[in-house]
Amino acid sequence: MADYKWGVGTIFVNKDQFVDGVRTYVVHAGRNLKFTKNDKERVRVRCLGAQGQCEWSLYCAFLTSCQTWQLRKVIDTHTCSREFSIHLMNSKWLSKSIDNSLRENPNLKLVDIRNKAVRKWNTKVTVSMAHMAKVLAAKEVEGLFRDQYKRIYNYAHELIRSNPESIVKIKVEDVNGDKIFMSFYTCLKACKDSFISYRPIIGLDGCFLKGQYRGELLTAVAQDANDQILPLAYAIVEVENKETWSWFLELLVVLGGPDKCRSCTFMSDQQKVLFIIFNCDLIVNFSE
Fold first, then answer.
1. CATH number for 59
2. What's the whole-model pTM score?
3. Which terminus of the chain has fewer CB atoms gathered within 10 Å of its CB, N or C?
4. Is the model's pLDDT at 60 over the cut of 90?
């Protein structure tokens, strides 16, 4: 966008698309532009550089015949130098550029946002603008994460469709008529078939998830005849406690059967599987 060439006749779907394009151009090119006219039918933009003497300008108008916006007049030559402080950049535009960074790092700091603006666009960002951009981006990211949970059943059906005879279990809780996600268990068909040829050693462990809604990832892995570590099953749960481990191990015992599991050696920390080794009645209940 820093070297983008505006051309007469360029079509925009709506005014917002044109305005957003101008803001993007402003940030990348480092020019101090201003909307001198902005109504339902016309948008005029001019450059304030060189003490207002820069000739650069755009004029975009609404076409009633095709219900689109078109660039009608363009002077695409700057006679000013690049500026460090860009007034046309706002927090809404900045939030769209940092949502991916915030999705990867929910604890993104304001100083990181300001440093990114200087490093990537050579543009100054105030503390208040960085704060507002982070708030807007957090709302967008949280909404995206929330929408993904609504499609959890679609994901389960896709796993079963692409991996027939796989085991997929979903637990939800009904709270005031809303379905709240609790846990998700997966054992793929290939892993299930290979269980009988695995070495009789199963490792169990859990780890924290660092997404927007946190949670725990429980895993069971084994070693095949080629001494390779292969996953047996995994589950996503709210917390790591006796109840969630019991639910996970119950499904794991069903996978191989009580006899197979009695012959296995379980490796784990914090005594997660003592009740499976020493409580035969619980194993029988699992098999039922």
1. 2.20.25
2. 0.53
3. C
4. yes
